[in-house]
Specification:
By secondary structure, the chain is an alpha+beta fold. The protein is built from 20 helices and 20 strands. The strands form four sheets. Strands 1, 2, 9, 10, 11, 12, 19 and 20 form an eight-stranded mixed β-sheet that branches. Strands 13, 14, 15, 16, 17 and 18 form a six-stranded antiparallel β-sheet that branches. α2 packs across α11, α9 packs antiparallel against α10 and α18 runs antiparallel to α19. It holds the Pfam family DAO. Keywords: FAD, Flavoprotein, Glycerol metabolism, Oxidoreductase. InterPro entries: DAO_C (IPR031656), DAO_C_sf (IPR038299), FAD-dep_OxRdtase (IPR006076), FAD/NAD-bd_sf (IPR036188), G3P_DH_FAD-dep (IPR000447). It catalyses: sn-glycerol 3-phosphate + O2 = dihydroxyacetone phosphate + H2O2.
């Protein structure tokens, strides 16, 4: 299947001329999760994204499918139980993306420490029980201070008590989004990036029936009609609601900003993801994660009110993270000059919740729709497991839609950070959440979508979303290593060297066979065969429209291979110009956009100011 600039125009024509059953606004992980489930359910599904897929937030996470062990500090067992179970589901539906990588948590005797050695062992045992990994190779264990320092000699020894080791997963956030998007398109969804929703359309009764949209590439405006519209725009949720002139919308979100910095492993090497209190007694915990010969660390967590489309790393962000890192690793002496790349993203936190999944959180104010959404998701889960009936699901939906007057407090659950609302004009708003929850959030939304569409006479098929594998993930999740070794051999047979072939298999999973078909004609000038076929496939089948799409989100080259960028830059521009038919002016614009993004990820402005 092609999914490219060439198919995009046909998709736009279809959007302008047919009424969809469901229109999804927003192509991050939440919208992508709804799209794949909706398309699999047999309803006509459309999705528009105003930027590239995952560009806004879903390519800017900590790149872990994090189990939330911190919640066990306050015995929020429900949060951790649902999170670790959902993490296993995500690994099953996208087996080539999340990978198990045990986390080390050094324990220090310090004021306001999150855990001591006694409490961390209790927490980890409960965590393993909830995750179902007791008596497996991933079961937790504790190590003494000497063993912690043998693993990570650079860690501060003062007040170090020991450490806990427990199962966690590394993730490729942007790849998870594009694989969901591609599968949704394969299942029949009509999907286009760089299409912005300008306002909500209404019928004579004031019900939402679509959007007035703009093709950001041509500036053309047009209407898209749908029986149901869902807002999955992440940090932009409130902005879209504000553009709906039938709503008196009070803001839902309190966005916070998270920053991550990348250095070479030669500057600081860690053998496994490491997670510790900041040491500044501010209630924050920091991740330090090895990846592709680099080490990245974060995250900050600060309120954000600036330009949502363009959050930036400030000197204060860098100062904070370097202070924490150099405190915990006293001999590392990491400076601004050592930072090779960075990324910054917004977390679309629900204002009434006021907590981050990284940093514990404040009190849950019991916003009604959160409680009923949690109940709905549990009921949908039970239905998927044949433990609940269709009537149970319908009752939960009814409760969701009438629960606005409730004043009872909601228990803290994994969906504490997400919320589903049916607005007064019928617009659905699915807000908040985190990557680990995306499949579950979408399943909860689909229950409401099903009821609304069936009321309009639309037939909606039953789908078990826990078994709905994404593009590239169509293989046995219990046999990942052997399967990826098989796809590595397929790439090798096409002439790709072994290490490069392994990279391709890990990136593209069961699509690797498709990727190697692009080897015909050999390597592009200045590019390896691996890079050539990866780029050609991404342009033809992953709606890759710019060099930034490719080098930042389809691959992680800009984040974890900064030293390769000078050699990649012109050959990628040249090959994309050939594939996409760019004229000289467009090539110049693309080069300028790429250079500006590279400079931004490498903190060029901060480094220049520091140098002056």
């Amino acid at each position: 299947m092609t999914f490219s600039q060439a198919t995009r125009q046909a998709s736009l024509t279809k959007l302008a001329n047919t009424t969809q059953d469901l229109l999804i606004i927003g192509g991050g992980i939440t919208g992508a999760g709804v799209a794949i489930q909706a398309a699999a359910s047999g309803i006509t599904t459309a999705l528009i994204e105003m930027q590239d897929f995952a560009e806004g937030t879903s390519s800017r996470s900590t790149k872990l499918v994090h189990g939330g062990i911190r919640y066990l500090k306050t015995f929020d067992v429900g949060v951790v139980s649902d999170t670790v179970k959902e993490r296993a589901v995500v690994q099953g539906i996208a087996p080539h993306i999340p990978r198990p990588f045990p986390m080390l948590m050094p324990i220090y005797a310090e004021p306001q420490a999150t855990f001591d050695l006694f409490s961390v062992k209790i927490a980890m045992n409960l965590y393993d029980q909830l995750a179902g990994v007791e008596a497996t190779q991933y079961a937790n264990y504790t190590i003494n201070a000497k063993e912690v320092l043998q693993r990570e000699p650079g860690l501060r020894a003062d007040n170090l008590q020991g450490g806990g080791v427990y199962l966690d997963y590394v993730n490729n956030d942007a790849r998870l989004v594009i694989e969901n998007i591609k599968e949704a398109a394969e299942l029949g969804a009509t999907i286009a990036s760089h299409v912005k929703a300008l306002s909500i359309l209404h019928d004579d009764r004031g019900q939402a029936i679509g959007v007035h949209a703009k093709d950001e590439l041509t500036e053309t405006e047009f209407d898209i009609h749908a029986k149901l519209v869902i807002n999955t725009t992440g940090p932009w949720v409130d902005q879209l609601r504000a553009s709906d002139d039938r709503l008196k919308a009070t803001p839902l979100l309190r966005p916070t900003k998270g920053v991550h910095l990348v250095i070479d492993a030669s500057k600081l090497s860690v053998p496994q993801p490491t997670y510790f209190d900041s040491g500044l007694h501010d209630g924050r915990m920091i991740f330090v994660v090895p990846r592709e010969g680099k080490t990245y660390f974060g995250t900050t967590d600060t309120d954000y009110t600036g330009d949502y489309a363009h959050p930036t790393v400030t000197q204060a962000d860098v100062d904070y993270l370097l202070k924490v890192l150099n405190y915990r690793y006293p001999t590392a002496d990491v400076t601004l000059a050592d930072i090779e790349a960075s990324w910054v993203g917004l977390r679309p936190l629900i204002a009434s919740n006021g907590s981050s999944d990284y940093n514990g959180g404040g009190a849950n104010t019991g916003k009604v729709s959160e409680a009923s959404f949690t109940d709905l998701i549990k009921t949908v889960d039970a239905y998927e497991d044949n433990q609940a009936t269709r009537a149970d699901v319908e009752a939960a939906i009814s409760k969701l839609q009438t629960a606005r007057a409730e004043e009872t407090l909601a228990p803290s659950q994994v969906s504490r950070g997400s919320q589903l609302d049916v607005e007064d004009d019928g617009l659905l708003t699915l807000a908040g959440g985190k990557i680990t929850d995306y499949r579950k959030m979408a399943a909860g939304a689909m229950a409401v979508i099903r009821a609304a569409l069936e009321a309009q006479g639309v037939t909606v098929k039953d789908v078990d979303s826990k078994k709905l594998q994404v593009s590239g993930g169509h293989f046995d999740p219990t046999n990942v290593d052997e399967t990826l070794a098989f796809y590595t051999r397929i790439a090798q047979d096409a002439g790709v060297p072994e290490e490069d072939a392994k990279d391709l298999a890990n990136r593209f999973g069961s699509n690797t066979g498709r990727v190697v078909t692009y080897a015909e004609g050999g390597a592009a000038p200045g590019l390896s065969l691996k890079e050539t076929i990866s780029l050609r496939y991404s342009v033809a089948e992953e709606m890759t429209l710019t060099p930034v799409d490719y080098l930042l989100r389809r691959t992680n080259a800009m984040l974890f291979h900064a030293h390769d960028l000078p050699a990649l830059r012109q050959p990628v521009l040249t090959e994309m110009a050939r594939l996409l038919g760019w004229d000289t002016a467009t090539q110049g614009e693309m080069a300028a956009q790429l250079d500006a993004t590279i400079a931004e990820t490498q903190l060029a402005t901060l480094k220049e100011a520091h140098h002056d």
